[in-house]
């Protein structure tokens, strides 16, 4: 299955994958807003609530419905036809078993949810485990080959046809809550059929444990880790709701989502591409070490200053986006500005562990983190939701150190290099935070509308960060800037004065290439281009 993505250099394929993944996420998000606006007028709120409750029940099965087989297929150093057949057979059987269990045990959901209307929805949506398993192997092959362009186009097409066609059509016909179920199943079916149509892997079943042992051995640990990470990610919600009540949980949840969702959106596309990219070079430790350090440094360089700006502008941000009755979430938002950037930067260490099949250490780390969080929550519960947020921050600092220990041993990276990942981001965070603080001190005394003040704070932070990145670009960011300049210089309608400015800036960014270009072009008697 040789593709253009496979033959292209890894860095080029990764950058292309990030672009397509990001584009698909943006387009789907915009479509989702429009879809939600229309469906909200066709269905009552109870329909959305019932599907959300069913989704909570089904989420637990999702961690074990494929037993990590797709992840294992992407990670395999070498792929054989038997691997494809085993993954397809195993995922289909697992999907059928999990779907059957949910069909039989759906009435037990009443013990927790106490809503009989959820039972038929759980049974119907459980069919999605079988439908999704049909496309698991093909999707994993496309991820392994870094053909994210295909996946992005299929994702958008499936959403449009399933939700815009099947979902809206059923809702218009009066199907009620079942229109949401039909749309979900249709999306999974369209994606599965589309990915298989592209890959056309063998469908003949394969049995015999020798074909499954390596895949299941790796995949089962991935499933366990995913489940432990799910617990880690929801411990705060569970314990705040139990210890402090729904009001405190609401304040905490809105503050968390206000910061986490934009940060996650910035890094999610990179994370999706990182695992297949890291897996391709898993045996080339020096190259993998370089990819890990560059990826982590780049994310820290961008995320840390953004969170520093949020910490300073938290009062205006909360009052503009949430309203004055949410003021109690301001200190929570500030405390989370420590935890969330560390969590997003550390994810690359977890991806390296997955790519290198270093999963036992990752399991131990997640168990240690769960125990640490429970202890910190208990100790700091007296400080309310601010104490819980502080516990999350302390826990993320410890988790970062634990991942450093794993990466240090696995990739032979010195601790000074691991700590240096955060230096460019901390420098940028200090400057951006100080800039917004100075602007805030001046603006808050003018009695201007909060929206205007918040807008000027954002503008100040954006200018400060842009100036830092352009004047002192990190080694990880410099090639991206040069590539962007190269494209701008070839724009036919760009005025000559702007092209001249871009050339001078490019010469400053890459003086070695500039001298080489100048020497070469002078001998030909023609002006030097921006970049050859």
Describe the model.
With 532 residues, this protein is an all-alpha fold. The protein folds into 3 domains: 4-207, no CATH class; 223-471, no CATH class; 482-524, no CATH class. It is built from 23 helices and no strands. It is globular and about 65 Å long. It starts with a helix and ends in an 8-residue tail after the last helix.
- The helix/strand class is mainly alpha
Level of helix content?
A: over 70%
> Quick one: biggest sheet?
none
Low-confidence residue ranges: 1-7, 512-532
Which oligomeric state applies?
single chain
Number of strands: 0
What number of domains?
A: 3
Provide the gyration radius in Å: 25 Å
Q: Secondary-structure element sequence? A: HHHHHHHHHHHHHHHHHHHHHHH
Instruction: Report the portion of residues in β strands.
Output: under 5%
Distance between the termini: 33 Å
């Amino acid at each position: 299955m040789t593709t253009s993505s496979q033959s292209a250099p890894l860095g080029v394929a990764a950058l292309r994958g990030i672009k397509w993944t990001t584009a698909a996420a943006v387009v789907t998000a915009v479509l989702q807003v429009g879809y939600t606006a229309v469906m909200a007028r066709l269905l009552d709120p109870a329909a959305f609530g019932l599907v959300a409750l069913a989704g909570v029940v089904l989420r637990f099965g999702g961690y074990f419905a494929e037993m990590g087989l797709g992840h294992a297929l992407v990670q395999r150093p070498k792929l054989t036809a038997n691997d494809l057949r085993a993954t397809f057979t195993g995922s289909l059987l697992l999907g059928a078993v999990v779907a059957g269990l949910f069909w039989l045990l759906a009435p037990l959901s009443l013990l927790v949810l106490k809503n009989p209307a959820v039972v038929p929805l759980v049974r119907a949506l459980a069919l999605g485990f079988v439908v999704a398993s049909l496309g698991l192997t093909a999707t994993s092959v496309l991820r392994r080959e870094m053909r994210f362009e295909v996946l992005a186009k299929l994702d958008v097409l499936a959403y449009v046809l399933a939700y815009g066609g099947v979902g809206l059509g059923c809702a218009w016909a009066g199907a009620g809550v079942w229109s949401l179920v039909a749309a979900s199943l249709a999306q999974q079916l369209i994606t599965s059929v589309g990915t298989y149509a592209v890959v056309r892997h063998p469908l003949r079943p394969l049995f015999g444990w020798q074909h499954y042992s390596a895949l299941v051995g790796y995949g089962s640990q991935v499933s366990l880790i995913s489940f432990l990470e799910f617990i880690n990610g929801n411990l705060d919600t569970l314990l705040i709701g139990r210890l402090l009540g729904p009001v405190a949980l609401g304040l905490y949840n809105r503050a968390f989502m206000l910061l986490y969702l934009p940060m996650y959106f910035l890094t999610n596309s990179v994370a999706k591409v990182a695992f297949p990219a890291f897996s391709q070079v898993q045996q080339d430790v020096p190259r993998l070490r370089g990819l890990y350090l560059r990826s982590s440094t780049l994310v820290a360089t961008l995320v840390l200053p953004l969170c520093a700006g949020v910490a300073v502008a938290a009062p205006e941000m909360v009052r503009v986006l949430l309203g004055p009755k949410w003021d109690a979430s301001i200190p929570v938002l500030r405390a989370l500005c420590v935890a969330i950037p560390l969590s997003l930067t550390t994810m690359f260490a977890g991806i390296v562990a997955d790519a290198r099949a270093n999963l036992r250490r990752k399991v131990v780390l997640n168990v240690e983190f769960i125990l640490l969080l429970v202890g910190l929550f208990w100790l700091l519960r007296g400080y309310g939701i601010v104490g819980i947020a502080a516990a999350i921050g302390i826990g993320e600092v410890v988790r970062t150190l634990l991942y450093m220990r794993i990466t240090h041993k696995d990739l032979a990276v010195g601790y000074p290099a691991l700590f240096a990942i955060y230096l460019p981001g901390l420098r940028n965070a200090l400057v951006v935070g100080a800039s917004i603080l100075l602007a805030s001190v001046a603006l808050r005394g003018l009695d201007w509308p909060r929206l205007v003040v918040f807008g000027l704070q954002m503008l100040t932070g954006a200018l400060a960060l842009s100036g830092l990145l352009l004047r002192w670009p990190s080694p990880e960011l410099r090639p991206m800037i040069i590539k962007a300049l190269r494209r701008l210089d070839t724009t036919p309608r760009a005025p000559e004065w702007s092209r001249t400015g871009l050339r001078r800036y490019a010469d400053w960014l890459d003086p070695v290439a500039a001298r080489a270009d100048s020497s070469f072009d002078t001998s030909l008697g023609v002006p030097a281009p921006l970049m050859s």
